[in-house]
């Protein structure tokens, strides 16, 4: 480990500075050409969550502009179920032609040093940093960190040649994961396009003339007349869960899942018998084809009568019906809405095609799970120098 002698124990604030975000005005959110980033863009699992970027139309100081490759950090955390305190998000390249602002609940990492942001991002994902933040945070109901807290973090910094190598290794894994995610999004778009072609534009196989705006024998029903709401079973908090395990746990957040446990699943789902999930506050929709348990405030439901409507069709007919506008319960309003019910024979044809898409998605998700596991095992070994990297 001769090369480890070249590593230096340094203070993060000697290389970067932390800048506070824009004290934005709520009346300007939701319209305009600019984008405003909030804490919703930060995840303890992902690089960046796009739903955390909202349109914003108030002219603002360029001090609050971030560009692709910049890093922002969550300044606070409201629940241990979503451990994002001081976690990084990195602005994606797709925003290169957008004016993007970071809001008051974010810090920007102002980096003019020789430490590349690609290395810095993974440094701020390292468990050593997470443990440090846990030791300096303040607050109980709402946990917070100061700019000085972040800047005072000390770590062993390798020479540039080693930093670049570490970054390349970790980002290679992320590139493979993102390629799979693009394929998954393509399959989801194909499924959505098929639904619209058949059930919105009515250009389904053997399509016929419309009667009163609908094909013959199609009906309209309220959601509550078509679905059976299932019991929650035991609900889990993030502190009870593991990064890996037998049973996946889903909550209403923007993340795909909350974590895993090794107990008996609360619900049993499959490609032949899927279950739909609805986030009561967030209006998140999720189609489950594997056994699972639940976090808080997410409602499982399925078709009340499979001879009238099946779950694959039901998911696509309902998942865009309602969007969250404020933090309140939405099930009552959602279940009172109306959907079109096509003939069951056409639903079954749709069902068969979507099931194959879901199987392909499952395969790519499993590949991403393996890649993520390998990357996360490498991360602490690379950052600590236990795994030697030749420049």
TrEMBL record:
Keywords recorded for this protein, A-Z: DNA-binding, Endonuclease, Hydrolase, Nuclease, Restriction system
Domain Type I restriction modification DNA specificity: 5-189, 215-358
Cross-referenced InterPro entries: Restrct_endonuc_typeI_TRD, Restrct_endonuc_typeI_TRD_sf, Type-I_RS_S_subunit
Keyword DNA-binding: yes
Pfam family, one: Methylase_S
Biological process annotations from GO: DNA restriction-modification system
Superkingdom field: Bacteria
GO molecular function: DNA binding; endonuclease activity
Entry similarity comment: Belongs to the type-I restriction system S methylase family.
PANTHER family recorded: TYPE I RESTRICTION ENZYME HINDI SPECIFICITY SUBUNIT, TYPE-1 RESTRICTION ENZYME ECOKI SPECIFICITY PROTEIN
Name of the protein in its database record: Restriction endonuclease subunit S
Species whose genome carries this gene: Prevotella intermedia
């Amino acid at each position: 480990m001769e090369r480890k002698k070249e590593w230096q124990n340094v203070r993060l604030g000697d290389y970067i500075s932390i800048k506070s975000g824009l004290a934005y005005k709520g009346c300007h959110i939701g319209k305009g050409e600019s984008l405003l980033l909030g804490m919703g863009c930060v995840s303890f699992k992902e690089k960046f969550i796009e739903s955390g970027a909202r349109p914003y139309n108030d002219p603002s100081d360029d001090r609050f502009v971030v560009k692709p490759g910049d890093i922002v950090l969550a300044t606070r955390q409201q629940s241990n179920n979503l451990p994002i305190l001081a976690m990084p998000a990195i602005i994606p390249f797709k925003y290169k032609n957008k004016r993007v602002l970071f809001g008051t609940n974010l810090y920007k990492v102002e980096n003019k040093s020789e430490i590349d942001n690609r290395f810095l991002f993974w440094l701020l994902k390292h468990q050593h940093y997470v443990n440090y933040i846990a030791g300096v945070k303040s607050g109980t109901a709402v946990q917070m960190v100061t700019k000085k807290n972040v800047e005072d973090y000390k770590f062993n910094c390798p020479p540039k040649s080693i930093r670049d190598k570490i970054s390349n290794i970790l980002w290679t894994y992320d590139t493979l994961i993102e390629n799979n995610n693009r394929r998954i999004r393509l399959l989801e778009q194909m499924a959505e396009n098929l639904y619209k072609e058949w059930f919105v534009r009515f250009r389904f196989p053997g399509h016929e003339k419309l009667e009163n705006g609908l094909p013959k024998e199609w009906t309209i029903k309220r959601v509550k007349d078509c679905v059976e709401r299932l019991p929650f079973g035991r609900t889990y908090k993030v502190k009870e869960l593991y990064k890996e395990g037998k049973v996946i746990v889903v909550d209403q957040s923007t993340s795909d899942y909350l974590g895993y446990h090794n107990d008996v699943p609360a619900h049993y789902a499959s490609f032949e018998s899927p279950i739909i999930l609805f986030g009561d506050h967030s209006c998140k929709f999720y189609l489950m084809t594997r056994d699972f348990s639940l976090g808080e405030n997410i409602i499982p439901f399925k078709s009340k009568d499979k001879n009238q409507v099946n779950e694959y069709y039901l998911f696509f007919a309902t998942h865009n019906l309602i969007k969250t506008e404020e933090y309140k319960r939405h099930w009552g309003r959602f279940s009172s809405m109306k959907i079109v019910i096509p003939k069951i024979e056409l639903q079954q044809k749709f069902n068969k095609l979507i099931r194959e898409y879901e199987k392909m998605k499952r395969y790519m998700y499993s590949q991403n799970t393996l890649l993520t596991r390998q990357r996360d095992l490498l991360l602490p070994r690379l950052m600590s120098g236990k795994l030697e990297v030749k420049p």
